[in-house]
Amino acid sequence: MKIADIIKVFDEAAPAELQESYDNAGLIIGSPDDEVKAALITLDVTEEVIEEAINLKCDLIIAHHPLIFKGLKSLGRKNPVERMAITCIRNNIAVFAIHTNLDNVLTGVNRRICDKLKVKNPVVLEPKRQQMRKLVTFCPADFTDKVRIAIFEAGAGHIGDYDYCSFNVSGQGTFRGLEGATPFVGKVNELHFENEVRIETIFPVYRQRQIVEALLSAHPYEEVAYDIYPVTNEYNIVGAGMIGSLDSPVETEVFFERIKNVFNTKSIRHTKLIFDKIQRVAVCGGSGSFLLGSALARKADIFVTADVKYHDFFEADGKIIIADIGHFESEQFTPELIKDILLEKIPTFATRLSQVNTNPVFYYL
Questions:
Q1: What pTM was computed for the model?
Q2: Phi and psi (nearest 5°) for 169?
Q3: Which has the minimum average pLDDT: 73-77, 138-142, 200-204, 327-331?
């Protein structure tokens, strides 16, 4: 299996373009053209995980957290990242990470957390903006269906639970082919009038290249006229965190016991338990305190996340319960999610879940 084939699977599930600006998701060590036989899937890349990969003869490590976040100026042995990079290279082990892009999709990390906590009908807590574009093109009437289908199949025309969405207006286009042109209709140096259809549809930014390629391939004209406009609407299937509801209100202490059991956490840092019962639940795997305002605005009873700072707890302001369950604990189900994504598309590829507990935080009990 080529690494490029594996990257394609993950790009379809959680496009790399959806990662945050500070992130370094993607292929970190290795080449897309490299052949690999087996993958070890982990939350973090550690020296113990690399040793495990060597022993299991896995030539690819797929992690949630990138091995390298910032650029390296040298490859010595001054720190763990440099040591691990050298070890991977010497042992022909490729490293791939799928991080905040997997956090930011509807079926990603936060959906898995909601499923574990039995939170129903979850939606994105803080949808992203500036993620949509509008395509407008003009096509001869007889070729409209062909062009529309091509751009739809490339990823355009999705609005909520609907696809193949477009708006179409019939009109008359004009053009004159100059010397050197080979017009599909009309003659060189003669003004031509053609019955055309104006097709409008929207698409996510990360699909633009594929959609334009599909348009140019399906369109009969030598020169294809099209416009792309920014759209500032929220893209409600992409963004940070999720929020949903329990089937029925659950006593707060009972819900806390559910959290402890599901995430196998020894302790939960939390604000005052201001509600007797919990029903509306917001979640964010990893460091989620930046979403507290959105959880408050969406009327969540509790916000389950990690890495909440001391002063952030004050921001609850007696209106919401904050439950900090720990970074590792909140994301511990991500490796099984990554495995599920990969095996759904490539069921015969050999994958192993790492047995190394990479949590660097310990509790003195």
A1: 0.88
A2: -130, 130
A3: 73-77
